[in-house]
Each structure stands twice: as structure tokens, then as C-alpha cells.
Amino acid sequence: MQNIIEPFITSAPGKVIIFGEHSAVYGEPVIAAAVSSLRSYLLVTQASSPNVIELDFPDIKFDHKWSYTQDFFPSSATSTNGFDLEKCRKIFVKHNQGTTDLDLELEDELTQYIDTIIKNTLTEEKKQFHYYAALCFLYLYFNLCPQVSGVKFTIKSNLPVGAGLGSSASISVCLTLAMCKLGGILSGMSLSEKDKKMINKWSYIGEKCTHGTPSGIDNAVATFGGAVLFQKQVDGKNKLEVIENFPQIPMILTNTKIPKSTKKLISDVRKLCEENPKIMKGILSSMGYIAETGASILKKFDAQTSLPQLIELVRINHGLLVSIGVSHPGLEKIKLLSDTLKIGGTKLTGAGGGGCALTILLDHEEDRLKIEEFKNTLHERYGYDNFDTDLGGTGSCFIDLSKKNGGEILNAFTENSAGDQIFTPELLQLLQLNTIL
Ligand SMILES: Nc1ncnc2c1ncn2[C@@H]1O[C@H](COP(=O)(O)OP(=O)(O)O)[C@@H](O)[C@H]1O
Ligand SMILES: C[C@@](O)(CCOP(=O)(O)O)CC(=O)O
Ligand SMILES: [Mg+2]
């Protein structure tokens, strides 16, 4: 008997890495903050038929329907060429125990099985975005709720995709939250710290589908929100310190809209480490020390003295990122302009290679006009977008649709337009009011 799915929404923020991108992958400290007004939302509703699993991802122009009994668990499949619920359960238990001695054979079998499903069903040419979205979705689905069918997953986000603001992690967290609820792993909709630790672990697994070897900072910030000092550990017991009372540093986020591949950028840096281990060791540890120094300044923030110190660290961190080849001429234009106007310091944020840059401002009263000139020049000369947004705020959460205005939210999400068009100030306010903390 197909159980009726009551619609619900999950949500998670994007992030800005202040210091420590790329070195984070090698276990160096990294500091990042949630971007409270740029978030992804996942609406879960009844699908058109009980035997269908449906995706509707308009932000990346991707929608797809799978047949549960034909594409996922064909009755004709034997335990050798198919994948059954028992095998899914085994992998889930291993991951959930956090044991590193995963049954790699079974793991590979699932990855192969998912790859076959994608190859057989995504008939259009496999766009990178579509492939990774399907891979992340299916890997989490087969682990967290493989027994569930007749469900539609609709994603709407005002986070620019692939721009270095952690959109992949916010999606992975939204999917993890939803599938843990559908799979009965989460009972309620207000999340305990224990729930968030479990969400963080599974969304990291989802991030690995998109990034290959992510550090875990993106999904940590998307899960916990606020601002965190994070350090990946070899044994998987990562260090995560939430930075209380994170200051609202005066900053401008600029999106070059230059597409980049996080996975490729991470792999290029890895090649550099293999070819020049001694040089890279020095550079990566300096980046880690910058993140530690930045964290201690932000914990005892005083605008007068702290901003120039942070801007100095921004300058050095960016220079080191340029030296490992992850900047881009389009990003350098932003840095050059902020240096020329002497309004503060600019560094790339996220994987680089395009995407976003972060400019920390000196915030001098006399700079107001120059800051407007900075934003207008970037927009008019290069077509870049600027974001004015606060840092910190709510992490992963459910949105309550049972309240009286839940229907209004539902209607907005069932439109076929992409995320950024539906997020009116009124809808954003409704979503905030209905957030279950
Ligand atoms: N709004 C969205 N809808 C569907 N998939 C998304 C969305 N935003 C991001 N993604 C997924 O995340 C991937 C982009 O991740 P990545 O390259 O790491 O960029 P970012 O810097 O934003 O994290 C896309 O390929 C897609 O799979
Ligand atoms: C490059 C890296 O440090 C951050 C990637 O950020 P994004 O996917 O570009 O938003 C990788 C990681 O830490 O997982
Ligand atoms: Mg990413």
C-alpha cells in the first residue's frame, strides 16, 4: 500500500570560505560562514504515480522520472546483476557506523549500479551538472530510503550554481534531510545536535559524489549554519568549532559567473602536490596558518584594528591561491579594482577558477562612493553580480507547511520557474517564519 506523502520542505544555506580553501582538503584548518540569505530548498511531494521517483531541478534545467520497478529494482534482477534492498541496507549500516572498513566490493557494486542507471536513463548528453546531481541523489537515495517510491523531489535555490558558494553541499544537505525523513531515520522535524551530526556525515558522502575529495567544510557549514573553524582529520573524526558571535564583517561577494569545475580544480591541485610535494607542503601549511590567525582575529573582533589585519591575510591567502593555479583572469579583475580603489582586500572564495570573490572592506566613511564605483564598474564593465549578504544564520532545517500560509509556500514552489525568480521578499519572509528550528 503506497503511503501518502505529506508535502514538506528542507533547506540549507550556501557558504563563504573566509580563509583556507583547497588547503582544507589536505587537513589544514579552514574558516567558513553560512550565507544566510542564499539558500537551497527541496520540496518533497507525492509523485504522479506510486511507482515513480521524480526529480525537478529547474535551476540546472534537469528533470527526470525513474521507474522504481524497472530502473531501480527490476524483479528480473538477480543478486549478481541487480541491486536489492538487502545490499542497500548493508552499505547503509556500514556508513552509519562510520566504520572505515567499508565493504569496498559492495561499495563499488553500488557505484557501478548507479552509474549504469544514469547511463541507461539520462538519454540526453550527460551534462556535468546533471550527472553529478543524479549521482549525488541516487547514492543518498539507495542508502537512506531505497524502499520509498511515488515521491517527487523539487529543488529551488537562490544560490548561484557552481560559483564557489557551496551550492553542491547545500543540495546534498537538503537531500540528506529529506531522505532521512522519508527513510524513517529522522522522526521529527526539529533537529537535535545528534541529528545534525548524522546529517553532516551523510551530506559529506553526497558531497564526495560531486567533488571527489571534498574537505567537508561546505557540508558542515550548510548543516550547522553560523560560522565554523574546521579541520579534516585522517581518521574521519574532523575538528569542528562553531565560532560564537561571528562578527558581521563589512564585505562584498562578487560572482564573476565564470563557470568552473570544483572537482577538476581540486584534482589539478592534487597533481601539483604530487609533482612538487615540498613546495606545496609549505604553501598549504601557510594557508592553514592564515586560517588559524584569521579565526583568532574574528573571535576577538574589533573593527578598528581587526579589519586591516584581516585584509592583510586576505591579500596573502589570495596570493598563495594564485600560486597554486586556482585563480582566473576574471577574478584578478576584481582584486585589481579593489586594490586600485584602496577600499579593502579581495580573495577568491571556494574552489576558484571562476565563481566568486570576497572583498573585505576597510569600511571607512569616505569610501562609500568608491565602494559604489567598485560595484557598478564590476557590473557594467564585466557583467558581474554583487551580493550584499550577512554571514552566519540558520543551517539545515525543515520548513513547516502545516501552518496557515503553508499553501502559499507550496504554490510558489510548484511553479516551474527556477529558484531565483520565485524568491520574492514576501516568500523569503514566509519561509523564514515557517522555519522549524
Ligand atoms: N539549484 C540546484 N539544483 C540542482 N543541482 C544543483 C543546484 N545547485 C547545485 N547543484 C549541484 O551542485 C553541483 C555544483 O557544485 P560545485 O561545482 O561544487 O559548485 P559550488 O561551488 O556551488 O559548490 C552541480 O553540478 C549540481 O549537481
Ligand atoms: C576547494 C574547496 O576547499 C572548497 C570548494 O568550494 P565550492 O565547491 O567551490 O563551493 C574544496 C573543499 O574544501 O571541499
Ligand atoms: Mg561545491
TrEMBL record:
Domain GHMP kinase C-terminal: 306-374
Domain GHMP kinase N-terminal: 143-226
Reactions that this protein is recorded to catalyse: (R)-mevalonate + ATP = (R)-5-phosphomevalonate + ADP + H(+)
Subcellular location: Cytoplasm
Keywords, sorted A to Z: ATP-binding, Cytoplasm, Kinase, Lipid biosynthesis, Lipid metabolism, Magnesium, Nucleotide-binding, Steroid biosynthesis, Steroid metabolism, Sterol biosynthesis, Sterol metabolism, Transferase
Gene Ontology molecular functions: ATP binding; mevalonate kinase activity
Source domain of life: Eukaryota
Entry EC number(s): 2.7.1.36
PROSITE patterns xref list: GHMP_KINASES_ATP
Pfam family for this entry, one: GHMP_kinases_C
Stated name of the protein: Mevalonate kinase
Upper taxonomic lineage: Eukaryota, Fungi, Dikarya, Ascomycota, Saccharomycotina
